[in-house]
Amino acid sequence: MTGVAGTENHLLALLPQLAESGLDVRLIVLCEPEKPMYAYAAQMSALGVPTELVSIRGDLDLRLIGQLSGRLRALGAEAVHTHLIHADWHGLPAALRAGVPHIYTSGHNDDPFRRRLPIRLVQAYLWRRVTAGIAISEAVRRFMIAVEWAPPHKVHTVHYGIAPRLPNLVMRAAFRAELGIPLDAPVFGSVCRLIEQKGLSFALRAFAQVLARFPEAHYVIVGDGPLRESLCAEAERLGVAAHVHFAGWRADAAERMSAFDIFLMPSLWEGFGLVLLEAMAAHLPIIASNVSALPEIVVDGETGLLCAPRDVECLAAHMARLLSDRALAQRLGANGAARLQAEFSVSKMVNGTRAVYQKTGALRED
Fold first, then answer.
1. Can you point out the beta strands (E) in the chain?
2. Domains plus CATH for the chain?
3. Which of 3, 190, 210, 354 has an alpha carbon 20 to 30 Å from 262's alpha carbon atom?
4. pLDDT in tens, 293-325
5. Would you say the pTM of this structure is higher than 0.70?
């Protein structure tokens, strides 16, 4: 792990609930020596899941496999479940070496780099050695089967889930005041890492078109990443910098979404998009790309509006439509909050995960 993002937040919701359901859950976090995740480990431990930090050096650290294998033996682990590719490449061989009887992996994304043949071959080998796997969306399940050559019978889909919450009106006022945005101004918002995958350059171009028609509008981007400087420069070039606010990484990003009126997710690909559930919890209408798993979450015309990735004209049209039709925006936001409770609850995620363990022999229900 190199930081706290969707997968890490997913584990914060899942693992404590699995522990509360009666499982003895331990977490081992692989992190780069220069990026120790002390706060994350402390947060997880405080939620009842003992957490250890282990340093990883490079993409393939053979020393680490032996170290993890010994640790698994010492713990007497009966099942190992890995998340993300570095955990797969080190945790799965370590579990096999330690003789752990039940071994699981979870797929969280359909990253293009996974299409490289050497990676596909490694993943295919590992798939044949694991007990089963969990895909966080049907899109990721299809990707695992087609690209990683995962045996279809081993791959089970369990969506992410989060707890519902009420919009935070105090945070809405405070965050807007911090950024210098009037309380009555319409605000678009995104929460993500500032990387190419998130398609923010297309959102900025669309916002420039919208701002010409709605000069009181603002766009807030919460998050950080390698593209921050170039995105700031693009906002300057487009003449919208005074209305675009790069708020940086915030530990309480989900709460700060209360300051938004409309949520934008113009991703080029996305394994799931946990932040969409946060937007639904905040009763926000969503405008998103119709790629990967996003149409599984956002129902076009019911909980949000979808458009093709990189389609600036469509994105701008959807943004203008929701600013012009506040009743539609409110209806989409309310429908999204209802869909969250019905389809993406924490209990549904926990029960789905336990069902995979039970079906494959790692968990026996009394």
1. 27-31, 51-55, 79-83, 102-107, 132-135, 155-157, 187-191, 218-222, 244-248, 262-265, 286-289, 304-307
2. 6-161+346-359 (3.40.50.2000), 169-343 (3.40.50.2000)
3. 3
4. 999 999 999 999 999 999 999 999 999 999 999
5. yes
